[in-house]
Design brief:
495 residues, alpha/beta, Rossmann fold, Outer Surface Protein A, domain 3, 3 domains, 8-stranded mixed β-sheet, 3-stranded antiparallel β-sheet
Protein backbone atom coordinates (compact mmCIF):
# COMPACT_ATOMS: atom_id res chain seq x y z
CA UNK A 1 0.00 0.00 0.00
CA UNK A 2 1.20 3.49 -0.78
CA UNK A 3 -0.33 5.02 2.33
CA UNK A 4 2.76 6.57 3.92
CA UNK A 5 1.56 5.09 7.19
CA UNK A 6 4.88 5.80 8.88
CA UNK A 7 5.61 7.49 12.18
CA UNK A 8 7.10 10.69 10.61
CA UNK A 9 4.17 11.03 8.19
CA UNK A 10 1.68 10.49 11.01
CA UNK A 11 3.27 13.10 13.23
CA UNK A 12 3.19 15.64 10.41
CA UNK A 13 -0.44 14.87 9.55
CA UNK A 14 -1.56 15.02 13.19
CA UNK A 15 0.60 18.01 14.13
CA UNK A 16 2.19 16.32 17.16
CA UNK A 17 5.79 15.75 18.25
CA UNK A 18 5.40 12.11 19.33
CA UNK A 19 2.76 9.42 18.97
CA UNK A 20 2.06 9.29 22.72
CA UNK A 21 0.53 12.77 22.29
CA UNK A 22 -2.19 11.32 20.04
CA UNK A 23 -5.79 12.31 20.81
CA UNK A 24 -8.66 10.49 19.09
CA UNK A 25 -11.32 12.36 17.08
CA UNK A 26 -13.99 11.48 19.63
CA UNK A 27 -11.84 13.15 22.31
CA UNK A 28 -11.55 16.46 20.46
CA UNK A 29 -8.68 16.20 17.99
CA UNK A 30 -8.86 18.97 15.40
CA UNK A 31 -5.94 17.99 13.13
CA UNK A 32 -5.91 15.16 10.62
CA UNK A 33 -9.65 14.62 10.96
CA UNK A 34 -10.59 14.62 7.27
CA UNK A 35 -10.90 11.53 5.08
CA UNK A 36 -9.17 12.61 1.88
CA UNK A 37 -6.40 10.08 1.18
CA UNK A 38 -5.00 6.64 2.11
CA UNK A 39 -3.14 7.97 5.17
CA UNK A 40 -6.35 9.50 6.52
CA UNK A 41 -8.00 6.10 6.13
CA UNK A 42 -5.26 4.44 8.19
CA UNK A 43 -5.62 7.04 10.94
CA UNK A 44 -9.41 6.62 10.96
CA UNK A 45 -9.19 2.81 11.10
CA UNK A 46 -6.16 2.00 13.22
CA UNK A 47 -5.90 4.97 15.60
CA UNK A 48 -9.42 6.41 15.88
CA UNK A 49 -10.99 2.92 15.72
CA UNK A 50 -13.74 4.21 13.41
CA UNK A 51 -15.15 2.76 10.20
CA UNK A 52 -14.24 3.68 6.61
CA UNK A 53 -16.36 2.97 3.50
CA UNK A 54 -15.18 -0.11 1.61
CA UNK A 55 -15.29 1.79 -1.67
CA UNK A 56 -12.67 4.29 -0.45
CA UNK A 57 -10.44 1.52 0.89
CA UNK A 58 -10.53 -0.35 -2.40
CA UNK A 59 -9.90 2.85 -4.37
CA UNK A 60 -6.98 4.01 -2.22
CA UNK A 61 -5.38 0.73 -1.24
CA UNK A 62 -6.23 -1.42 -4.23
CA UNK A 63 -8.10 -4.72 -4.25
CA UNK A 64 -5.01 -6.87 -3.62
CA UNK A 65 -3.73 -4.83 -0.67
CA UNK A 66 -7.18 -4.62 0.88
CA UNK A 67 -7.54 -8.39 0.65
CA UNK A 68 -4.11 -8.82 2.28
CA UNK A 69 -5.09 -6.64 5.24
CA UNK A 70 -8.36 -8.52 5.63
CA UNK A 71 -6.41 -11.79 5.63
CA UNK A 72 -4.48 -10.67 8.74
CA UNK A 73 -7.74 -10.32 10.62
CA UNK A 74 -7.18 -6.61 11.21
CA UNK A 75 -10.37 -5.60 9.36
CA UNK A 76 -13.96 -6.71 9.74
CA UNK A 77 -17.33 -5.52 8.47
CA UNK A 78 -18.69 -2.65 10.53
CA UNK A 79 -21.94 -2.10 8.64
CA UNK A 80 -23.21 -2.30 5.09
CA UNK A 81 -20.29 -1.45 2.75
CA UNK A 82 -17.93 -0.22 5.49
CA UNK A 83 -15.19 -1.79 7.63
CA UNK A 84 -13.35 -1.06 10.84
CA UNK A 85 -10.28 -2.39 12.55
CA UNK A 86 -10.35 -5.26 15.01
CA UNK A 87 -7.27 -3.82 16.72
CA UNK A 88 -5.30 -0.63 16.90
CA UNK A 89 -2.21 -0.77 14.71
CA UNK A 90 0.42 1.97 14.66
CA UNK A 91 4.04 2.60 13.64
CA UNK A 92 6.36 3.33 16.55
CA UNK A 93 10.13 3.00 17.03
CA UNK A 94 10.51 1.39 13.62
CA UNK A 95 7.85 -1.26 14.29
CA UNK A 96 4.16 -1.71 13.57
CA UNK A 97 2.43 -2.72 16.77
CA UNK A 98 -1.08 -3.98 17.31
CA UNK A 99 -3.07 -3.72 20.54
CA UNK A 100 -6.70 -3.86 21.61
CA UNK A 101 -9.49 -1.43 20.85
CA UNK A 102 -10.67 -0.23 24.26
CA UNK A 103 -14.33 -0.34 25.25
CA UNK A 104 -14.30 3.45 25.59
CA UNK A 105 -13.28 3.86 21.93
CA UNK A 106 -16.24 2.24 20.21
CA UNK A 107 -19.86 1.56 21.07
CA UNK A 108 -20.61 -2.10 21.46
CA UNK A 109 -17.07 -3.18 22.35
CA UNK A 110 -17.20 -5.05 25.67
CA UNK A 111 -14.71 -4.22 28.39
CA UNK A 112 -12.23 -7.09 28.57
CA UNK A 113 -10.43 -8.15 31.74
CA UNK A 114 -7.46 -9.13 29.56
CA UNK A 115 -7.37 -6.11 27.24
CA UNK A 116 -3.94 -5.55 25.66
CA UNK A 117 -2.79 -2.04 26.51
CA UNK A 118 -1.43 0.16 23.69
CA UNK A 119 2.31 0.86 23.48
CA UNK A 120 1.77 4.50 22.44
CA UNK A 121 0.78 6.01 25.79
CA UNK A 122 2.89 8.42 27.84
CA UNK A 123 3.56 5.90 30.61
CA UNK A 124 4.60 3.19 28.16
CA UNK A 125 6.84 5.69 26.39
CA UNK A 126 8.55 6.45 29.70
CA UNK A 127 9.02 2.75 30.36
CA UNK A 128 10.52 2.07 26.94
CA UNK A 129 12.77 5.11 27.25
CA UNK A 130 14.08 3.77 30.58
CA UNK A 131 15.20 0.47 29.01
CA UNK A 132 18.66 0.70 27.41
CA UNK A 133 19.08 -0.44 23.82
CA UNK A 134 22.66 -1.51 24.42
CA UNK A 135 23.38 -5.12 23.42
CA UNK A 136 22.60 -7.99 25.77
CA UNK A 137 22.48 -11.75 25.26
CA UNK A 138 19.30 -12.87 27.03
CA UNK A 139 16.43 -10.44 27.57
CA UNK A 140 13.18 -10.96 29.48
CA UNK A 141 10.16 -8.65 29.43
CA UNK A 142 7.58 -9.35 32.15
CA UNK A 143 3.99 -8.07 31.95
CA UNK A 144 4.79 -7.70 28.27
CA UNK A 145 1.46 -6.83 26.64
CA UNK A 146 2.34 -5.97 23.04
CA UNK A 147 5.92 -7.17 23.53
CA UNK A 148 7.38 -3.80 22.49
CA UNK A 149 10.44 -3.94 24.76
CA UNK A 150 11.33 -7.49 23.76
CA UNK A 151 10.95 -6.61 20.07
CA UNK A 152 13.47 -3.79 20.47
CA UNK A 153 15.89 -6.10 22.29
CA UNK A 154 15.57 -8.78 19.61
CA UNK A 155 16.20 -6.16 16.92
CA UNK A 156 19.44 -5.40 18.74
CA UNK A 157 20.54 -9.03 18.59
CA UNK A 158 19.32 -10.41 21.92
CA UNK A 159 17.51 -13.66 22.42
CA UNK A 160 14.33 -12.08 23.79
CA UNK A 161 11.30 -13.38 25.64
CA UNK A 162 8.12 -11.45 26.44
CA UNK A 163 5.72 -12.95 28.96
CA UNK A 164 2.28 -12.08 30.24
CA UNK A 165 -0.30 -13.78 32.41
CA UNK A 166 -2.96 -13.41 29.70
CA UNK A 167 -3.07 -15.55 26.57
CA UNK A 168 -4.45 -12.56 24.70
CA UNK A 169 -1.23 -10.61 25.29
CA UNK A 170 0.80 -13.59 24.11
CA UNK A 171 -1.34 -13.70 20.97
CA UNK A 172 -0.75 -10.00 20.26
CA UNK A 173 2.98 -10.19 21.01
CA UNK A 174 3.35 -13.20 18.70
CA UNK A 175 1.42 -11.35 16.00
CA UNK A 176 3.63 -8.27 16.43
CA UNK A 177 6.81 -10.32 16.16
CA UNK A 178 5.54 -11.91 12.94
CA UNK A 179 4.25 -8.60 11.56
CA UNK A 180 7.73 -7.11 11.97
CA UNK A 181 9.63 -10.26 10.93
CA UNK A 182 11.53 -10.48 14.24
CA UNK A 183 12.26 -14.19 14.76
CA UNK A 184 14.35 -13.67 17.90
CA UNK A 185 11.36 -12.65 20.04
CA UNK A 186 9.40 -15.42 21.77
CA UNK A 187 6.07 -14.75 23.53
CA UNK A 188 5.05 -16.97 26.45
CA UNK A 189 1.99 -17.13 28.69
CA UNK A 190 2.45 -17.51 32.42
CA UNK A 191 2.55 -15.86 35.82
CA UNK A 192 5.77 -13.81 35.72
CA UNK A 193 8.84 -16.11 35.86
CA UNK A 194 6.67 -19.24 35.69
CA UNK A 195 6.37 -18.58 31.95
CA UNK A 196 10.13 -19.21 31.55
CA UNK A 197 10.94 -21.72 34.32
CA UNK A 198 14.55 -22.34 35.35
CA UNK A 199 15.90 -19.80 32.86
CA UNK A 200 18.18 -16.86 33.64
CA UNK A 201 18.63 -13.54 31.85
CA UNK A 202 21.12 -10.71 31.87
CA UNK A 203 18.44 -8.03 31.42
CA UNK A 204 14.93 -8.22 32.92
CA UNK A 205 12.43 -5.40 32.39
CA UNK A 206 8.85 -4.80 33.47
CA UNK A 207 6.09 -2.20 33.34
CA UNK A 208 3.78 -3.92 35.83
CA UNK A 209 0.21 -3.03 36.81
CA UNK A 210 0.42 -0.64 39.77
CA UNK A 211 -2.98 0.98 40.30
CA UNK A 212 -4.28 0.28 43.80
CA UNK A 213 -7.67 -1.41 43.73
CA UNK A 214 -9.49 -3.94 45.94
CA UNK A 215 -10.51 -6.05 42.93
CA UNK A 216 -8.96 -6.71 39.53
CA UNK A 217 -11.05 -5.23 36.73
CA UNK A 218 -8.27 -4.70 34.17
CA UNK A 219 -5.28 -7.04 34.39
CA UNK A 220 -2.84 -4.65 32.71
CA UNK A 221 -3.68 -1.90 35.23
CA UNK A 222 -4.72 -3.23 38.64
CA UNK A 223 -1.92 -3.99 41.08
CA UNK A 224 -3.68 -5.16 44.21
CA UNK A 225 -4.81 -3.44 47.37
CA UNK A 226 -1.79 -1.12 47.58
CA UNK A 227 -0.71 -1.28 43.92
CA UNK A 228 2.52 -3.13 44.74
CA UNK A 229 1.45 -6.78 44.53
CA UNK A 230 2.95 -7.53 41.11
CA UNK A 231 5.96 -5.22 41.48
CA UNK A 232 6.96 -6.88 44.76
CA UNK A 233 6.79 -10.36 43.19
CA UNK A 234 8.86 -9.25 40.19
CA UNK A 235 11.62 -7.94 42.43
CA UNK A 236 11.43 -10.90 44.81
CA UNK A 237 11.99 -13.24 41.84
CA UNK A 238 15.14 -11.53 40.57
CA UNK A 239 17.62 -13.61 42.62
CA UNK A 240 16.44 -16.72 40.78
CA UNK A 241 16.33 -15.21 37.29
CA UNK A 242 18.89 -12.40 36.89
CA UNK A 243 22.45 -13.42 36.09
CA UNK A 244 25.40 -11.99 37.98
CA UNK A 245 26.38 -8.71 36.37
CA UNK A 246 22.87 -8.29 34.95
CA UNK A 247 20.46 -5.40 35.44
CA UNK A 248 16.71 -5.17 35.87
CA UNK A 249 14.57 -2.16 34.91
CA UNK A 250 11.11 -1.64 36.41
CA UNK A 251 8.93 1.43 35.82
CA UNK A 252 6.03 1.69 38.23
CA UNK A 253 4.25 3.49 41.05
CA UNK A 254 5.09 2.32 44.57
CA UNK A 255 5.09 3.78 48.05
CA UNK A 256 7.19 5.33 50.76
CA UNK A 257 6.02 4.27 54.21
CA UNK A 258 6.59 6.04 57.50
CA UNK A 259 8.84 3.20 58.66
CA UNK A 260 10.95 2.98 55.47
CA UNK A 261 11.36 4.68 52.07
CA UNK A 262 10.73 2.83 48.83
CA UNK A 263 14.40 1.99 48.16
CA UNK A 264 14.75 0.24 51.52
CA UNK A 265 11.52 -1.65 51.00
CA UNK A 266 12.77 -2.85 47.60
CA UNK A 267 15.92 -4.17 49.24
CA UNK A 268 13.73 -6.08 51.69
CA UNK A 269 11.72 -7.59 48.81
CA UNK A 270 14.92 -9.13 47.45
CA UNK A 271 15.07 -11.35 50.52
CA UNK A 272 18.23 -13.12 51.72
CA UNK A 273 20.00 -12.37 48.43
CA UNK A 274 19.46 -8.61 48.84
CA UNK A 275 23.12 -7.90 49.55
CA UNK A 276 23.98 -9.22 46.07
CA UNK A 277 22.15 -6.27 44.47
CA UNK A 278 22.54 -2.53 44.08
CA UNK A 279 19.20 -0.71 44.31
CA UNK A 280 18.82 2.51 42.33
CA UNK A 281 15.52 4.38 42.46
CA UNK A 282 15.22 7.22 39.94
CA UNK A 283 12.17 9.21 41.04
CA UNK A 284 10.15 10.88 38.30
CA UNK A 285 7.28 12.25 40.39
CA UNK A 286 6.14 11.90 43.98
CA UNK A 287 2.81 12.76 45.64
CA UNK A 288 1.30 12.51 49.06
CA UNK A 289 -1.87 10.37 48.99
CA UNK A 290 -3.93 13.54 49.43
CA UNK A 291 -2.23 15.23 46.46
CA UNK A 292 -2.61 12.16 44.25
CA UNK A 293 -6.30 11.58 44.94
CA UNK A 294 -7.19 15.26 44.81
CA UNK A 295 -5.80 15.18 41.28
CA UNK A 296 -7.72 11.97 40.53
CA UNK A 297 -10.92 13.68 41.63
CA UNK A 298 -10.18 16.81 39.60
CA UNK A 299 -8.74 15.29 36.41
CA UNK A 300 -10.15 11.77 36.19
CA UNK A 301 -13.62 12.25 37.55
CA UNK A 302 -13.19 10.12 40.66
CA UNK A 303 -15.96 10.96 43.13
CA UNK A 304 -14.67 13.11 45.97
CA UNK A 305 -15.96 10.73 48.62
CA UNK A 306 -14.10 7.84 46.97
CA UNK A 307 -10.86 9.84 46.70
CA UNK A 308 -11.08 10.77 50.38
CA UNK A 309 -11.60 7.13 51.33
CA UNK A 310 -8.46 6.18 49.40
CA UNK A 311 -6.50 8.86 51.26
CA UNK A 312 -7.66 7.44 54.59
CA UNK A 313 -6.84 3.91 53.39
CA UNK A 314 -3.24 4.82 52.52
CA UNK A 315 -2.88 6.67 55.81
CA UNK A 316 -3.84 3.44 57.58
CA UNK A 317 -1.04 1.72 55.64
CA UNK A 318 1.37 4.44 56.88
CA UNK A 319 1.99 5.53 53.27
CA UNK A 320 3.62 8.96 53.12
CA UNK A 321 4.16 9.23 49.35
CA UNK A 322 3.14 7.56 46.11
CA UNK A 323 6.35 7.42 44.06
CA UNK A 324 6.42 7.04 40.28
CA UNK A 325 9.94 5.83 39.51
CA UNK A 326 12.30 3.99 37.21
CA UNK A 327 13.99 1.32 39.32
CA UNK A 328 17.34 -0.17 38.29
CA UNK A 329 18.63 -3.19 40.17
CA UNK A 330 22.07 -4.58 39.37
CA UNK A 331 23.28 -7.95 40.56
CA UNK A 332 26.95 -7.99 41.57
CA UNK A 333 29.25 -10.04 39.39
CA UNK A 334 31.61 -10.63 42.31
CA UNK A 335 30.93 -10.28 46.06
CA UNK A 336 30.97 -6.67 47.27
CA UNK A 337 29.14 -4.22 49.48
CA UNK A 338 25.68 -3.31 48.21
CA UNK A 339 24.58 0.24 47.41
CA UNK A 340 21.14 1.78 47.85
CA UNK A 341 20.52 5.12 46.16
CA UNK A 342 17.51 7.31 45.54
CA UNK A 343 17.79 10.15 43.04
CA UNK A 344 15.40 12.50 41.27
CA UNK A 345 15.57 12.02 37.52
CA UNK A 346 15.04 15.02 35.26
CA UNK A 347 12.50 14.71 32.47
CA UNK A 348 13.58 13.60 28.99
CA UNK A 349 17.07 12.41 30.01
CA UNK A 350 18.31 9.76 27.54
CA UNK A 351 18.78 6.41 29.26
CA UNK A 352 22.33 6.17 27.91
CA UNK A 353 23.27 9.04 30.25
CA UNK A 354 21.92 7.08 33.23
CA UNK A 355 23.68 3.92 32.04
CA UNK A 356 27.04 5.62 31.77
CA UNK A 357 26.63 7.10 35.21
CA UNK A 358 25.90 3.66 36.67
CA UNK A 359 28.86 2.17 34.80
CA UNK A 360 31.29 4.80 36.01
CA UNK A 361 30.00 4.47 39.56
CA UNK A 362 30.85 0.80 39.36
CA UNK A 363 34.38 1.53 38.21
CA UNK A 364 34.92 3.88 41.14
CA UNK A 365 33.82 1.23 43.56
CA UNK A 366 36.23 -1.39 42.19
CA UNK A 367 38.76 -1.86 45.03
CA UNK A 368 41.54 -3.34 42.87
CA UNK A 369 41.70 -0.58 40.24
CA UNK A 370 42.52 2.68 42.08
CA UNK A 371 45.18 3.61 39.51
CA UNK A 372 42.71 3.36 36.63
CA UNK A 373 40.19 5.45 38.54
CA UNK A 374 42.88 8.04 39.32
CA UNK A 375 43.64 8.34 35.61
CA UNK A 376 40.11 9.44 34.76
CA UNK A 377 39.59 13.11 33.86
CA UNK A 378 36.36 14.49 35.33
CA UNK A 379 34.47 17.27 33.60
CA UNK A 380 31.77 19.30 35.29
CA UNK A 381 28.49 19.30 33.39
CA UNK A 382 27.68 22.76 32.01
CA UNK A 383 24.35 22.80 33.87
CA UNK A 384 26.00 22.77 37.31
CA UNK A 385 25.88 25.98 39.33
CA UNK A 386 27.65 26.96 42.55
CA UNK A 387 25.90 28.97 45.23
CA UNK A 388 27.52 30.24 48.42
CA UNK A 389 26.19 31.66 51.64
CA UNK A 390 28.62 34.16 53.18
CA UNK A 391 29.01 35.62 56.65
CA UNK A 392 30.80 38.79 57.69
CA UNK A 393 33.97 38.20 59.68
CA UNK A 394 36.66 40.75 60.51
CA UNK A 395 35.44 43.08 57.83
CA UNK A 396 35.43 40.37 55.13
CA UNK A 397 32.87 38.05 53.60
CA UNK A 398 33.74 34.47 54.53
CA UNK A 399 32.06 31.45 52.86
CA UNK A 400 29.90 29.58 55.32
CA UNK A 401 27.92 27.16 53.17
CA UNK A 402 28.73 26.18 49.59
CA UNK A 403 26.19 24.38 47.40
CA UNK A 404 26.45 22.72 44.01
CA UNK A 405 23.12 22.58 42.21
CA UNK A 406 22.06 20.81 39.05
CA UNK A 407 18.83 20.12 37.16
CA UNK A 408 19.93 17.45 34.63
CA UNK A 409 20.34 14.52 34.37
CA UNK A 410 19.40 14.52 38.06
CA UNK A 411 17.76 17.24 40.09
CA UNK A 412 20.11 17.49 43.03
CA UNK A 413 21.86 19.79 45.46
CA UNK A 414 25.15 18.92 47.19
CA UNK A 415 26.50 20.79 50.17
CA UNK A 416 30.28 20.94 50.58
CA UNK A 417 32.85 22.92 52.55
CA UNK A 418 34.24 26.02 50.77
CA UNK A 419 37.65 24.40 50.22
CA UNK A 420 36.07 21.81 47.94
CA UNK A 421 35.05 24.51 45.45
CA UNK A 422 38.67 24.75 44.35
CA UNK A 423 38.66 21.04 43.44
CA UNK A 424 35.45 21.41 41.45
CA UNK A 425 36.79 24.41 39.54
CA UNK A 426 39.66 22.25 38.17
CA UNK A 427 37.28 19.66 36.71
CA UNK A 428 37.45 20.69 33.07
CA UNK A 429 38.06 17.28 31.47
CA UNK A 430 41.82 17.74 31.07
CA UNK A 431 43.19 16.97 34.55
CA UNK A 432 43.33 13.36 35.84
CA UNK A 433 42.07 12.76 39.35
CA UNK A 434 45.60 12.01 40.56
CA UNK A 435 46.93 15.33 39.20
CA UNK A 436 43.84 17.10 40.48
CA UNK A 437 44.79 16.21 44.02
CA UNK A 438 48.39 17.29 43.60
CA UNK A 439 47.35 20.52 41.88
CA UNK A 440 45.01 21.79 44.57
CA UNK A 441 47.45 20.82 47.34
CA UNK A 442 50.30 22.67 45.60
CA UNK A 443 48.12 25.76 45.28
CA UNK A 444 47.42 25.67 49.01
CA UNK A 445 43.71 25.14 48.36
CA UNK A 446 43.80 21.88 50.32
CA UNK A 447 46.01 20.98 53.28
CA UNK A 448 49.11 18.94 52.48
CA UNK A 449 47.76 16.12 54.62
CA UNK A 450 44.70 15.64 52.42
CA UNK A 451 44.80 12.06 51.10
CA UNK A 452 44.27 11.27 47.39
CA UNK A 453 41.47 8.91 48.45
CA UNK A 454 39.51 11.92 49.68
CA UNK A 455 39.57 13.49 46.23
CA UNK A 456 38.57 10.21 44.58
CA UNK A 457 35.70 9.84 47.04
CA UNK A 458 34.55 13.40 46.38
CA UNK A 459 34.64 12.83 42.60
CA UNK A 460 32.61 9.67 43.14
CA UNK A 461 30.00 11.65 45.06
CA UNK A 462 29.72 14.23 42.29
CA UNK A 463 29.43 11.44 39.73
CA UNK A 464 26.57 9.86 41.69
CA UNK A 465 24.87 13.25 41.72
CA UNK A 466 25.09 13.42 37.92
CA UNK A 467 27.28 16.53 38.11
CA UNK A 468 30.35 15.25 36.29
CA UNK A 469 31.16 13.01 33.36
CA UNK A 470 34.30 11.70 31.66
CA UNK A 471 33.90 12.71 28.00
CA UNK A 472 37.62 12.58 27.21
CA UNK A 473 38.07 9.05 28.49
CA UNK A 474 37.18 5.97 26.47
CA UNK A 475 33.73 4.98 27.75
CA UNK A 476 34.27 1.37 26.81
CA UNK A 477 37.57 1.39 28.65
CA UNK A 478 35.69 1.38 31.90
CA UNK A 479 32.91 -0.98 30.88
CA UNK A 480 34.87 -4.20 31.21
CA UNK A 481 35.85 -3.19 34.71
CA UNK A 482 32.49 -1.68 35.47
CA UNK A 483 30.68 -5.01 35.38
CA UNK A 484 33.10 -6.41 37.95
CA UNK A 485 33.05 -3.32 40.11
CA UNK A 486 31.77 -2.62 43.58
CA UNK A 487 29.50 0.05 44.99
CA UNK A 488 30.07 2.24 48.03
CA UNK A 489 27.40 2.96 50.59
CA UNK A 490 28.66 6.59 50.64
CA UNK A 491 25.88 9.14 50.49
CA UNK A 492 26.18 12.69 49.27
CA UNK A 493 28.19 13.81 52.30
CA UNK A 494 30.60 16.71 52.22
CA UNK A 495 34.14 16.35 50.95
Amino acid sequence: MRCEYTEPALLRRLGIAALHEFVARRDGRTTGTSLDDPLDACVRLFLDAESVPDGLLEEWWGTEALAAVRATGLLETASHESSWATALCYPIDGFWLASDVAASMRDGVPERLDIVYPAMTTNTRRFLDSVPETPCERFLELCGGTGAAALRAARGGAAAWTTDITERSTHFATFNAALNAVPGCVACTGDLYAAVPRQTFDRIVAHPPYVATPTTRLIFRDGGADGEAVTQRIIAGLPGALTRGGRSYVTCMATDRSDSPLEQRIRGWLGPAGDEFDVNVFVRTSFTPAEYYERAAADKGMPVAESQEWVRYFERLAVTHLVYASIVLERHRTPRAPCTRRRIRAADVPQIVIERMLDWEGLFAEPVTPSQVSALRPQLRPTVRLAAQLRAECGMWVPEVTLLENASPLRVQVEMPPAAAAVVARMDGTVPISALHADVVSRGELPTGAAPEEVRRFVHQLLSAGMIEFPNDEAGGGSALVHESDRHRDGMGAY
